[in-house]
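Good morning,

Attaching, inline, the backbone tokens for the sequence recovery test we're adding to the shared suite. The designed sequence is right after.
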């Protein structure tokens, strides 16, 4: 019973920590085009490709840097989270081209976060290419939604 109670306290502490981080992210990113999505104790920041990168490019658009700055300040403040940066593409083009582009885009965002004091040790960079669509790739609107970078904040539980 003591172990179960201790686990509940730790779990509750993690939930409260992530609640506070989510609230700050929502405040800082309001109106930016970035979606803040909660999934249990994880927080996902979904950055649409059309506001983050030029078509076919892995360089972050300069106008998006202020948005990344706002997110990075919260990520840096809440240092009890791991940060998974994943790049995604639509299904246009070859698998290998999409894989490489998604990896480069994720790396660009991770590198930018590092330039804003987020420790490299907290970051994991993943290129997922076209393997995880969130919309129908047969429409222009769907393809646009699938071109994105997501930052997932995962609580450190040790």
């Amino acid at each position: 019973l003591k172990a179960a109670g201790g686990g509940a306290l730790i779990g509750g502490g993690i939930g409260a920590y992530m609640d506070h981080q989510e609230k700050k992210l929502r405040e800082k990113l309001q109106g930016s085009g970035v979606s803040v999505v909660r999934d249990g104790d994880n927080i996902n920041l979904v950055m649409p490709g059309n506001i983050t990168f030029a078509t076919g490019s892995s360089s972050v658009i300069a106008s998006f840097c202020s948005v990344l700055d706002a997110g990075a300040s919260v990520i840096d403040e809440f240092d009890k989270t791991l940060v998974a940066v994943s790049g995604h593409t639509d299904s246009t083009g070859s698998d290998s081209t999409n894989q490489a582009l998604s990896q480069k885009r994720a790396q660009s965002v991770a590198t930018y976060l590092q330039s804003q004091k987020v420790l490299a040790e907290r970051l994991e960079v993943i290129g997922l290419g076209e393997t995880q669509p969130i919309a129908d790739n047969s429409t222009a609107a769907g393809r646009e939604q699938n071109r994105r970078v997501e930052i997932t904040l995962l609580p450190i539980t040790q």
